Amino acid sequence: MENNSNNNNNTKSNKLWLNGIVVVVILLTLFTIVGSLNDFNEILSTIKTMDNRFLWLALGASFLSFVFLSISNHIVLRALNKEISLVDGFLIQSIETFFNGITPFSSGAQPFQLYYYRKMGVPSNQATSVLAVNFIIFQTVSVTLSTIGIAIYFQDILNVMGHNIIYILIGYTINTTILVGLFLLGYVRTAYKLFEAIFTFFERFNWTKKTANRLKSRTEKFVGEFQGGVKFLFTKKRVFILSSLTKLISLALLYSTTVIIVRALGQTITTTNAFYLFYSSILAVTTMMFVPLPGASGGTEISFSLLLTGKMPSVQVVTVMLIWRIITYYLGLLFGFIGFLLLKTRRTIK
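RESULT FIELD:
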């Protein structure tokens, strides 16, 4: 058993390093592509003219957004389990930006968070409920903001993106569908039957039969515990409001960095333009999550650049995109990685 555990840990570590290498390669590729399509010296010259005070302000806003996200998630945790320390709970939440950032579809944090919750003595059903509720609230806030942005600026987005707006709409539809599915899973009592039917289908194949059979036998109990935790937490109005509010603050801080970076260029920004820049960054991130690369790389940068087309010269668009991506994505990786290193030093329950 000990050898198996060590092997599993080694496998996870290898995958972690591999994903980290992929992220670095993507960053280098991004700079290579930008350098080949644009005059990199001109971009560097533009960066040098930027007001450093605004750049530091953008860094501060981004950092605070990650802190508020961890606080928001921890509020939900404390509603179910008050035995875990504030520091341990906060650190477990902080690793979300790192593991989600280095995995496709932002799906890597939950398994690691679940692992550390259990190591810290939080029952698996409570941990699962906390992760699920946090994801539901995050999706609710994200979809709500995306809906407002599309409703207000649909014509503007269509004008700058043309037929490429279909990718924005596809991403928005996927996010909305996921949100509806999560609510159905949390509140429809017979939802487990759908998953049992799916596992029954995979039982037909030899290479998935064993796993599908094991999962099928656990489905009803797991869904029942999941629904119990979700319903309990959503009856806590104060928890729901505080968690939603802090997530909203987190996202507002994160996506306001676009406005701050553009302001660093010395441009005068009207209220209408400020809101357009704000919603452009929201849509570029939330609707491109279906891109199967860490951080939805490629899709996020392209959609963000297209959404800013016509708002400023092309060299400034590229400059803003690069700085924005570093501040909102790579800084988040660093924040989560530091949290992960600190978490590994904490004493766990054997």
